[in-house]
From TrEMBL, chain B:
Protein name: ABC transporter permease
Keyword flag Thylakoid: no
Entries under InterPro entries matching the protein: Permease_MalE
Coiled-coil parts of chain: none
Species: Ravibacter arvi
Transmembrane segments: 133-158, 179-200
Length: 250, 242
Protein backbone atom coordinates (compact mmCIF):
# COMPACT_ATOMS: atom_id res chain seq x y z
CA UNK A 1 0.00 0.00 0.00
CA UNK A 2 1.16 3.52 -0.79
CA UNK A 3 -0.07 6.54 1.13
CA UNK A 4 0.53 10.12 0.10
CA UNK A 5 -0.09 12.90 2.56
CA UNK A 6 -0.40 16.58 1.75
CA UNK A 7 1.91 16.55 -1.28
CA UNK A 8 2.75 20.08 -2.38
CA UNK A 9 4.96 21.19 -5.24
CA UNK A 10 5.56 24.47 -7.01
CA UNK A 11 7.94 25.50 -9.78
CA UNK A 12 9.27 29.07 -9.93
CA UNK A 13 6.47 30.28 -7.70
CA UNK A 14 3.74 28.53 -9.69
CA UNK A 15 1.82 26.05 -7.56
CA UNK A 16 1.37 22.72 -9.33
CA UNK A 17 0.27 20.47 -6.46
CA UNK A 18 -1.70 22.02 -3.62
CA UNK A 19 -1.72 19.31 -0.97
CA UNK A 20 -2.73 15.95 -2.39
CA UNK A 21 -3.72 13.04 -0.13
CA UNK A 22 -4.48 9.51 -1.21
CA UNK A 23 -4.27 5.83 -0.44
CA UNK A 24 -3.33 3.32 -3.15
CA UNK A 25 -4.16 -0.24 -2.20
CA UNK A 26 -2.22 -3.42 -2.86
CA UNK A 27 -3.52 -5.65 -5.63
CA UNK A 28 -5.57 -2.85 -7.18
CA UNK A 29 -5.04 -0.65 -10.20
CA UNK A 30 -5.17 2.87 -8.83
CA UNK A 31 -5.76 5.56 -11.42
CA UNK A 32 -4.83 9.21 -11.24
CA UNK A 33 -6.83 11.04 -13.88
CA UNK A 34 -7.24 14.63 -14.99
CA UNK A 35 -6.75 16.93 -17.93
CA UNK A 36 -3.41 18.04 -19.30
CA UNK A 37 -1.45 20.31 -16.95
CA UNK A 38 -3.33 19.33 -13.80
CA UNK A 39 -0.22 17.91 -12.12
CA UNK A 40 -0.68 14.16 -12.70
CA UNK A 41 2.84 13.51 -13.95
CA UNK A 42 4.38 15.79 -11.33
CA UNK A 43 2.49 13.87 -8.63
CA UNK A 44 3.76 10.57 -10.02
CA UNK A 45 7.33 11.92 -10.13
CA UNK A 46 6.96 13.05 -6.50
CA UNK A 47 5.76 9.57 -5.54
CA UNK A 48 8.63 7.75 -7.28
CA UNK A 49 11.28 10.24 -6.21
CA UNK A 50 12.19 11.89 -9.50
CA UNK A 51 10.99 15.21 -8.10
CA UNK A 52 11.19 16.01 -4.41
CA UNK A 53 7.94 17.51 -3.12
CA UNK A 54 8.10 20.84 -1.27
CA UNK A 55 5.98 19.38 1.48
CA UNK A 56 4.18 16.16 2.39
CA UNK A 57 5.00 12.51 2.89
CA UNK A 58 5.00 9.39 0.73
CA UNK A 59 4.68 6.15 2.67
CA UNK A 60 5.46 2.78 1.11
CA UNK A 61 3.87 0.20 3.40
CA UNK A 62 4.46 2.63 6.26
CA UNK A 63 8.06 3.45 5.24
CA UNK A 64 8.63 7.16 4.71
CA UNK A 65 10.26 7.61 1.28
CA UNK A 66 11.52 11.09 2.11
CA UNK A 67 12.78 10.36 5.61
CA UNK A 68 16.28 11.43 4.59
CA UNK A 69 17.73 7.93 4.93
CA UNK A 70 19.34 7.33 1.51
CA UNK A 71 19.70 3.58 2.05
CA UNK A 72 16.02 3.25 2.90
CA UNK A 73 15.15 5.27 -0.19
CA UNK A 74 17.35 3.02 -2.33
CA UNK A 75 15.78 -0.14 -0.96
CA UNK A 76 12.28 1.21 -1.71
CA UNK A 77 13.41 2.22 -5.20
CA UNK A 78 14.52 -1.32 -5.87
CA UNK A 79 10.98 -2.50 -5.11
CA UNK A 80 9.55 -0.22 -7.82
CA UNK A 81 8.85 -0.88 -11.47
CA UNK A 82 8.07 2.05 -13.72
CA UNK A 83 6.57 2.12 -17.19
CA UNK A 84 7.34 5.45 -18.79
CA UNK A 85 5.15 7.19 -21.32
CA UNK A 86 7.40 6.41 -24.28
CA UNK A 87 8.68 3.12 -22.88
CA UNK A 88 12.12 4.68 -22.15
CA UNK A 89 13.88 1.65 -23.61
CA UNK A 90 17.63 1.91 -24.05
CA UNK A 91 18.19 2.40 -27.78
CA UNK A 92 21.52 0.61 -27.90
CA UNK A 93 20.18 -2.61 -26.36
CA UNK A 94 17.95 -5.34 -27.70
CA UNK A 95 14.56 -6.07 -26.18
CA UNK A 96 16.01 -8.91 -24.08
CA UNK A 97 18.97 -6.79 -22.97
CA UNK A 98 16.59 -4.03 -21.92
CA UNK A 99 14.63 -6.46 -19.76
CA UNK A 100 17.83 -8.01 -18.40
CA UNK A 101 19.33 -4.60 -17.55
CA UNK A 102 17.94 -4.26 -13.96
CA UNK A 103 19.03 -7.84 -13.22
CA UNK A 104 22.57 -7.08 -14.42
CA UNK A 105 22.76 -3.90 -12.42
CA UNK A 106 21.03 -4.82 -9.21
CA UNK A 107 21.36 -8.58 -8.66
CA UNK A 108 24.01 -11.25 -8.42
CA UNK A 109 21.98 -13.91 -10.26
CA UNK A 110 23.81 -16.31 -12.55
CA UNK A 111 23.54 -15.87 -16.33
CA UNK A 112 21.12 -18.79 -16.67
CA UNK A 113 18.90 -17.48 -13.86
CA UNK A 114 18.81 -14.09 -15.54
CA UNK A 115 17.94 -15.69 -18.88
CA UNK A 116 15.12 -17.66 -17.29
CA UNK A 117 13.71 -14.57 -15.65
CA UNK A 118 13.97 -12.50 -18.85
CA UNK A 119 12.30 -15.24 -20.89
CA UNK A 120 9.54 -15.56 -18.32
CA UNK A 121 8.82 -11.82 -18.34
CA UNK A 122 8.90 -11.59 -22.13
CA UNK A 123 6.51 -14.56 -22.35
CA UNK A 124 4.27 -12.90 -19.77
CA UNK A 125 3.85 -9.86 -22.03
CA UNK A 126 3.71 -11.98 -25.19
CA UNK A 127 6.99 -10.83 -26.69
CA UNK A 128 9.23 -13.89 -26.58
CA UNK A 129 9.60 -13.71 -30.38
CA UNK A 130 10.93 -10.15 -30.25
CA UNK A 131 13.75 -10.80 -27.76
CA UNK A 132 16.55 -10.05 -30.20
CA UNK A 133 15.01 -7.06 -31.91
CA UNK A 134 16.11 -3.49 -31.29
CA UNK A 135 13.65 -0.93 -29.85
CA UNK A 136 13.69 0.94 -33.16
CA UNK A 137 12.38 -2.20 -34.90
CA UNK A 138 9.23 -2.67 -32.80
CA UNK A 139 5.88 -0.88 -32.66
CA UNK A 140 4.70 1.56 -29.99
CA UNK A 141 2.50 -1.07 -28.34
CA UNK A 142 5.37 -3.55 -28.25
CA UNK A 143 7.62 -0.92 -26.68
CA UNK A 144 5.07 -0.46 -23.90
CA UNK A 145 4.96 -4.21 -23.36
CA UNK A 146 8.75 -4.38 -23.21
CA UNK A 147 8.57 -1.51 -20.72
CA UNK A 148 6.14 -3.56 -18.62
CA UNK A 149 8.41 -6.62 -18.84
CA UNK A 150 11.38 -4.53 -17.67
CA UNK A 151 9.25 -3.03 -14.89
CA UNK A 152 8.23 -6.44 -13.52
CA UNK A 153 11.53 -8.28 -14.02
CA UNK A 154 12.67 -7.47 -10.47
CA UNK A 155 9.38 -8.68 -8.94
CA UNK A 156 8.36 -5.19 -7.85
CA UNK A 157 5.97 -4.48 -4.99
CA UNK A 158 4.94 -1.23 -6.63
CA UNK A 159 4.22 -0.59 -10.30
CA UNK A 160 3.85 2.88 -11.80
CA UNK A 161 2.61 3.55 -15.32
CA UNK A 162 2.72 7.01 -16.87
CA UNK A 163 0.06 7.22 -19.57
CA UNK A 164 0.51 3.65 -20.78
CA UNK A 165 -2.02 4.14 -23.59
CA UNK A 166 -0.76 7.34 -25.11
CA UNK A 167 -0.14 7.04 -28.84
CA UNK A 168 -1.74 3.60 -29.13
CA UNK A 169 -4.75 2.48 -31.14
CA UNK A 170 -7.85 1.63 -29.02
CA UNK A 171 -7.44 -2.15 -29.38
CA UNK A 172 -3.77 -2.14 -28.33
CA UNK A 173 -4.60 0.29 -25.53
CA UNK A 174 -7.19 -2.12 -24.12
CA UNK A 175 -4.66 -4.99 -24.30
CA UNK A 176 -2.10 -2.92 -22.38
CA UNK A 177 -4.74 -2.05 -19.77
CA UNK A 178 -5.71 -5.69 -19.39
CA UNK A 179 -2.08 -6.69 -19.04
CA UNK A 180 -1.48 -4.11 -16.30
CA UNK A 181 -4.59 -5.25 -14.43
CA UNK A 182 -3.71 -8.95 -14.76
CA UNK A 183 -0.16 -8.39 -13.52
CA UNK A 184 -1.40 -6.26 -10.62
CA UNK A 185 -3.82 -8.92 -9.44
CA UNK A 186 -1.58 -11.90 -10.21
CA UNK A 187 1.43 -10.60 -8.27
CA UNK A 188 -0.52 -8.49 -5.75
CA UNK A 189 1.33 -5.32 -6.72
CA UNK A 190 0.31 -1.81 -5.73
CA UNK A 191 -0.18 -0.19 -9.12
CA UNK A 192 -0.63 3.49 -9.90
CA UNK A 193 -1.57 4.48 -13.44
CA UNK A 194 -1.58 8.04 -14.73
CA UNK A 195 -4.05 8.40 -17.55
CA UNK A 196 -6.59 10.58 -19.26
CA UNK A 197 -7.91 7.71 -21.32
CA UNK A 198 -11.61 7.09 -20.60
CA UNK A 199 -11.42 3.47 -21.70
CA UNK A 200 -8.80 2.85 -19.01
CA UNK A 201 -10.99 4.57 -16.44
CA UNK A 202 -13.91 2.28 -17.22
CA UNK A 203 -11.86 -0.91 -17.73
CA UNK A 204 -9.35 -0.95 -14.89
CA UNK A 205 -10.28 1.89 -12.52
CA UNK A 206 -10.55 0.04 -9.21
CA UNK A 207 -9.61 3.20 -7.33
CA UNK A 208 -9.63 6.56 -9.09
CA UNK A 209 -8.39 9.99 -8.05
CA UNK A 210 -9.38 12.99 -10.14
CA UNK A 211 -7.00 15.96 -10.14
CA UNK A 212 -8.02 19.44 -11.16
CA UNK A 213 -5.71 22.47 -11.04
CA UNK A 214 -3.38 20.80 -8.55
CA UNK A 215 -6.12 19.61 -6.18
CA UNK A 216 -7.85 16.29 -5.63
CA UNK A 217 -11.49 16.99 -6.46
CA UNK A 218 -12.92 13.48 -6.40
CA UNK A 219 -12.08 9.91 -5.41
CA UNK A 220 -14.00 6.74 -6.22
CA UNK A 221 -14.01 3.84 -8.67
CA UNK A 222 -15.22 2.88 -12.13
CA UNK A 223 -18.69 2.04 -10.81
CA UNK A 224 -19.30 5.39 -9.13
CA UNK A 225 -17.50 7.79 -11.44
CA UNK A 226 -20.41 8.33 -13.83
CA UNK A 227 -22.69 9.30 -10.95
CA UNK A 228 -20.36 12.03 -9.78
CA UNK A 229 -21.81 15.43 -8.88
CA UNK A 230 -18.51 17.24 -9.46
CA UNK A 231 -18.95 19.50 -12.50
CA UNK A 232 -15.23 19.55 -13.39
CA UNK A 233 -15.12 15.76 -13.38
CA UNK A 234 -18.27 15.50 -15.47
CA UNK A 235 -16.87 17.99 -17.93
CA UNK A 236 -13.72 15.86 -18.17
CA UNK A 237 -15.60 12.57 -18.43
CA UNK A 238 -18.19 13.67 -20.96
CA UNK A 239 -16.00 15.83 -23.16
CA UNK A 240 -16.59 13.26 -25.89
CA UNK A 241 -19.79 13.82 -27.93
CA UNK A 242 -20.57 10.11 -28.03
CA UNK A 243 -20.41 9.84 -24.24
CA UNK A 244 -22.49 13.01 -23.83
CA UNK A 245 -25.17 11.57 -26.10
CA UNK A 246 -25.11 8.26 -24.25
CA UNK A 247 -25.49 10.06 -20.95
CA UNK A 248 -28.45 12.08 -22.23
CA UNK A 249 -30.14 8.94 -23.50
CA UNK A 250 -29.70 7.45 -20.02
CA UNK B 1 28.70 31.34 -12.44
CA UNK B 2 25.72 29.23 -11.41
CA UNK B 3 26.40 27.01 -14.42
CA UNK B 4 30.01 26.60 -13.30
CA UNK B 5 28.85 25.60 -9.83
CA UNK B 6 26.35 23.17 -11.36
CA UNK B 7 29.16 21.75 -13.49
CA UNK B 8 31.34 21.04 -10.43
CA UNK B 9 28.40 19.47 -8.58
CA UNK B 10 27.83 17.34 -11.70
CA UNK B 11 31.48 16.25 -11.63
CA UNK B 12 31.20 15.46 -7.93
CA UNK B 13 28.13 13.31 -8.54
CA UNK B 14 30.29 10.95 -10.63
CA UNK B 15 31.89 9.66 -7.48
CA UNK B 16 28.88 9.14 -5.22
CA UNK B 17 26.75 5.99 -5.08
CA UNK B 18 28.80 4.09 -7.64
CA UNK B 19 27.87 0.74 -9.17
CA UNK B 20 29.86 -2.51 -9.34
CA UNK B 21 33.37 -2.29 -10.87
CA UNK B 22 32.43 -4.83 -13.57
CA UNK B 23 29.63 -2.53 -14.74
CA UNK B 24 32.03 0.37 -15.15
CA UNK B 25 34.65 -1.80 -16.83
CA UNK B 26 32.30 -3.00 -19.57
CA UNK B 27 30.92 0.52 -20.04
CA UNK B 28 34.50 1.87 -20.20
CA UNK B 29 35.43 -0.61 -22.96
CA UNK B 30 32.29 0.28 -24.92
CA UNK B 31 33.13 3.97 -24.66
CA UNK B 32 36.76 3.39 -25.66
CA UNK B 33 35.42 1.82 -28.83
CA UNK B 34 32.84 4.54 -29.41
CA UNK B 35 35.08 7.50 -28.57
CA UNK B 36 38.53 6.20 -29.52
CA UNK B 37 38.44 3.44 -32.12
CA UNK B 38 35.69 5.08 -34.16
CA UNK B 39 37.71 8.30 -34.34
CA UNK B 40 40.85 6.73 -35.81
CA UNK B 41 39.79 7.33 -39.42
CA UNK B 42 39.06 11.05 -39.11
CA UNK B 43 42.18 11.61 -36.99
CA UNK B 44 44.34 9.77 -39.55
CA UNK B 45 42.97 11.75 -42.50
CA UNK B 46 43.21 15.15 -40.80
CA UNK B 47 46.69 14.65 -39.34
CA UNK B 48 48.20 13.20 -42.52
CA UNK B 49 47.04 16.14 -44.60
CA UNK B 50 47.98 18.72 -41.98
CA UNK B 51 51.49 17.22 -41.91
CA UNK B 52 51.69 17.29 -45.69
CA UNK B 53 50.49 20.88 -45.95
CA UNK B 54 52.76 22.09 -43.15
CA UNK B 55 55.77 20.56 -44.94
CA UNK B 56 54.94 22.17 -48.28
CA UNK B 57 54.16 25.57 -46.75
CA UNK B 58 57.26 25.59 -44.55
CA UNK B 59 59.46 24.73 -47.53
CA UNK B 60 57.74 27.47 -49.53
CA UNK B 61 58.62 30.05 -46.86
CA UNK B 62 62.20 28.89 -46.17
CA UNK B 63 63.89 30.26 -49.24
CA UNK B 64 67.17 31.45 -47.68
CA UNK B 65 70.21 29.46 -48.87
CA UNK B 66 71.68 29.92 -45.38
CA UNK B 67 69.03 27.70 -43.78
CA UNK B 68 69.58 23.98 -44.38
CA UNK B 69 66.72 22.13 -46.10
CA UNK B 70 66.51 19.68 -43.20
CA UNK B 71 65.07 22.53 -41.10
CA UNK B 72 61.77 21.96 -42.92
CA UNK B 73 61.48 18.51 -41.32
CA UNK B 74 62.55 19.85 -37.92
CA UNK B 75 59.81 22.48 -38.08
CA UNK B 76 57.20 19.96 -39.22
CA UNK B 77 58.18 17.65 -36.37
CA UNK B 78 58.01 20.32 -33.68
CA UNK B 79 54.79 21.78 -35.02
CA UNK B 80 53.21 18.34 -35.00
CA UNK B 81 54.43 17.37 -31.56
CA UNK B 82 53.94 20.67 -29.78
CA UNK B 83 50.72 21.97 -31.28
CA UNK B 84 49.12 20.46 -34.36
CA UNK B 85 48.78 16.85 -33.24
CA UNK B 86 47.49 17.50 -29.72
CA UNK B 87 45.46 20.66 -30.22
CA UNK B 88 44.07 20.37 -33.73
CA UNK B 89 43.30 16.69 -33.23
CA UNK B 90 41.46 17.48 -30.01
CA UNK B 91 39.52 20.30 -31.67
CA UNK B 92 38.46 17.84 -34.35
CA UNK B 93 37.54 15.38 -31.60
CA UNK B 94 35.61 18.10 -29.77
CA UNK B 95 33.42 18.30 -32.87
CA UNK B 96 33.05 14.60 -33.43
CA UNK B 97 33.04 13.16 -29.92
CA UNK B 98 31.57 16.20 -28.16
CA UNK B 99 28.51 16.39 -30.38
CA UNK B 100 28.08 12.62 -30.16
CA UNK B 101 28.17 12.62 -26.36
CA UNK B 102 25.84 15.61 -25.98
CA UNK B 103 23.43 14.24 -28.59
CA UNK B 104 23.35 10.79 -27.01
CA UNK B 105 22.81 12.02 -23.46
CA UNK B 106 20.36 14.69 -24.57
CA UNK B 107 18.27 12.14 -26.42
CA UNK B 108 18.39 9.81 -23.43
CA UNK B 109 17.17 12.65 -21.24
CA UNK B 110 14.23 13.70 -23.40
CA UNK B 111 13.13 10.09 -23.97
CA UNK B 112 13.14 9.45 -20.19
CA UNK B 113 15.95 6.88 -20.36
CA UNK B 114 17.88 8.84 -17.74
CA UNK B 115 14.82 8.86 -15.46
CA UNK B 116 14.46 5.11 -16.03
CA UNK B 117 17.96 4.64 -14.61
CA UNK B 118 17.24 6.93 -11.68
CA UNK B 119 14.09 5.08 -10.60
CA UNK B 120 16.03 1.81 -10.66
CA UNK B 121 18.23 3.38 -8.00
CA UNK B 122 21.19 3.78 -10.38
CA UNK B 123 23.30 6.94 -10.27
CA UNK B 124 22.66 7.91 -13.90
CA UNK B 125 25.37 10.59 -14.00
CA UNK B 126 28.03 8.19 -12.79
CA UNK B 127 26.82 5.25 -14.88
CA UNK B 128 26.53 7.22 -18.11
CA UNK B 129 29.22 9.87 -17.84
CA UNK B 130 32.17 8.56 -15.82
CA UNK B 131 33.08 5.85 -18.39
CA UNK B 132 32.96 8.47 -21.16
CA UNK B 133 35.32 10.81 -19.30
CA UNK B 134 37.76 8.00 -18.48
CA UNK B 135 37.62 6.63 -22.03
CA UNK B 136 38.36 10.07 -23.48
CA UNK B 137 41.29 10.56 -21.10
CA UNK B 138 42.75 7.20 -22.11
CA UNK B 139 42.07 7.18 -25.86
CA UNK B 140 42.78 10.83 -26.73
CA UNK B 141 46.53 10.57 -25.94
CA UNK B 142 46.70 7.43 -28.09
CA UNK B 143 44.97 9.20 -30.95
CA UNK B 144 47.31 12.16 -30.59
CA UNK B 145 50.40 9.92 -30.74
CA UNK B 146 48.95 8.39 -33.90
CA UNK B 147 48.20 11.87 -35.27
CA UNK B 148 51.76 13.06 -34.61
CA UNK B 149 53.24 10.01 -36.31
CA UNK B 150 50.95 10.33 -39.34
CA UNK B 151 51.49 14.09 -39.51
CA UNK B 152 55.26 13.64 -39.69
CA UNK B 153 54.80 10.82 -42.19
CA UNK B 154 52.43 13.01 -44.23
CA UNK B 155 55.11 15.71 -44.33
CA UNK B 156 57.68 13.16 -45.43
CA UNK B 157 55.42 11.87 -48.23
CA UNK B 158 54.49 15.34 -49.47
CA UNK B 159 58.07 16.62 -49.22
CA UNK B 160 59.73 13.73 -50.99
CA UNK B 161 57.05 13.22 -53.64
CA UNK B 162 57.04 16.89 -54.65
CA UNK B 163 60.83 17.11 -54.36
CA UNK B 164 60.97 20.02 -51.89
CA UNK B 165 63.13 17.93 -49.57
CA UNK B 166 65.09 14.75 -50.03
CA UNK B 167 64.43 11.62 -47.99
CA UNK B 168 67.88 11.92 -46.34
CA UNK B 169 67.34 15.56 -45.36
CA UNK B 170 63.89 14.85 -43.96
CA UNK B 171 65.11 11.94 -41.81
CA UNK B 172 68.04 14.04 -40.63
CA UNK B 173 65.72 16.96 -39.86
CA UNK B 174 63.24 15.04 -37.74
CA UNK B 175 66.12 13.59 -35.67
CA UNK B 176 67.95 16.90 -35.29
CA UNK B 177 67.73 18.72 -31.90
CA UNK B 178 65.03 16.36 -30.66
CA UNK B 179 63.77 17.12 -27.14
CA UNK B 180 62.17 14.01 -25.55
CA UNK B 181 60.31 16.18 -23.01
CA UNK B 182 58.15 17.46 -25.86
CA UNK B 183 56.65 13.99 -26.21
CA UNK B 184 55.62 14.11 -22.55
CA UNK B 185 54.11 17.55 -23.16
CA UNK B 186 52.29 16.22 -26.23
CA UNK B 187 50.72 13.42 -24.17
CA UNK B 188 49.69 15.61 -21.22
CA UNK B 189 47.66 17.91 -23.45
CA UNK B 190 45.15 15.35 -24.83
CA UNK B 191 44.80 13.85 -21.34
CA UNK B 192 43.54 17.23 -20.10
CA UNK B 193 41.62 18.01 -23.29
CA UNK B 194 39.92 14.61 -23.20
CA UNK B 195 38.67 15.31 -19.70
CA UNK B 196 37.41 18.77 -20.68
CA UNK B 197 35.68 17.68 -23.88
CA UNK B 198 33.96 14.63 -22.36
CA UNK B 199 32.96 16.41 -19.14
CA UNK B 200 31.64 19.57 -20.80
CA UNK B 201 29.78 17.68 -23.54
CA UNK B 202 28.28 15.29 -21.00
CA UNK B 203 27.19 18.19 -18.83
CA UNK B 204 25.49 19.91 -21.77
CA UNK B 205 23.78 16.71 -22.87
CA UNK B 206 22.81 15.48 -19.41
CA UNK B 207 20.91 18.66 -18.55
CA UNK B 208 19.05 18.92 -21.86
CA UNK B 209 15.35 19.57 -21.51
CA UNK B 210 12.70 19.92 -24.18
CA UNK B 211 12.77 18.14 -27.51
CA UNK B 212 14.77 17.54 -30.66
CA UNK B 213 15.54 21.25 -31.10
CA UNK B 214 17.10 21.45 -27.63
CA UNK B 215 19.18 18.31 -28.27
CA UNK B 216 20.63 20.04 -31.34
CA UNK B 217 21.31 23.18 -29.32
CA UNK B 218 23.02 21.13 -26.60
CA UNK B 219 25.27 19.50 -29.20
CA UNK B 220 26.22 22.87 -30.65
CA UNK B 221 26.89 24.34 -27.20
CA UNK B 222 28.94 21.28 -26.28
CA UNK B 223 31.23 21.71 -29.29
CA UNK B 224 31.56 25.47 -28.85
CA UNK B 225 32.26 25.30 -25.12
CA UNK B 226 34.65 22.37 -25.53
CA UNK B 227 36.68 24.17 -28.21
CA UNK B 228 36.96 27.30 -26.07
CA UNK B 229 37.98 25.21 -23.04
CA UNK B 230 40.58 23.35 -25.12
CA UNK B 231 42.14 26.57 -26.39
CA UNK B 232 42.28 28.13 -22.91
CA UNK B 233 43.75 24.94 -21.46
CA UNK B 234 46.24 24.81 -24.34
CA UNK B 235 47.53 28.24 -23.44
CA UNK B 236 47.68 27.47 -19.71
CA UNK B 237 49.51 24.17 -20.27
CA UNK B 238 52.05 25.87 -22.55
CA UNK B 239 52.69 28.49 -19.86
CA UNK B 240 52.96 25.89 -17.13
CA UNK B 241 54.92 23.13 -18.77
CA UNK B 242 57.24 24.78 -21.30
Amino acid sequence: MIEIKNIKKSFNGKDVLLGIDGVFKKGETNLIIGGSGTGKSVLLKCIIGLIKPDDGRVLYDGRDFYSGDKDAMQSIRREMGVLFQGGALFDSQTVAENVRFPLNMLTDLSASEKNDRVNFCLERVGLEQAANRMPSEISGGMKKRVGIARAIVMNPKYLFCDEPNSGLDPLTAVKIDELIKEITEEYQITTIVITHDMNSVMEIGQNIIFLYQGRKLWEGNDATITQSEVPELNEFLFSNKLLRDLRKSG
Amino acid sequence: MSNLGKFFIFLGSQFTQREKFSVYWSRFLEECSSIGVKSVFIVAIVSTFIGAVSCIQTAYNLVSPLIPVSTVALIVRDMQILELAPTITCIVLAGKVGSHIAGELGTMRITEQVEALEVMGINSASYLVLPKILAAMVTFPMLVVLAAFLGIWGGYMAGTVTGVISERDYIYGIRDSFVPYNIFFMCVKPFVFGFLIAAISSFKGYYTSGGALEVGQSSTQAVTSSCIAVLIADYLLAQLLL
